[in-house]
Amino acid sequence: MGQEKIRQEINKLNFSEKLLLVGDIWDSIAQETGKQPLPEWQKQELDKRYAEYKAGKLKTYDCQAVHDELRAKFGFK
Description:
It is built from four helices and no strands. The chain has helices spanning 3-11, 15-33, 40-54, 63-74.
């Protein structure tokens, strides 16, 4: 099925059906992502960052504090 035909079929869906479809697509991508090898440059960068983290050279942030700050900054309380 071509891209235009897929778009036409998607446009026939209601909002809820489109959201479910997006979820299904993301789930499918997530399953395939684990099968894809990381490029060497990305492995090296991850190794470097992990070593910096273990050595205490990186500043870490509490997830909830980051969310709270972003919500306050953009007016989502």
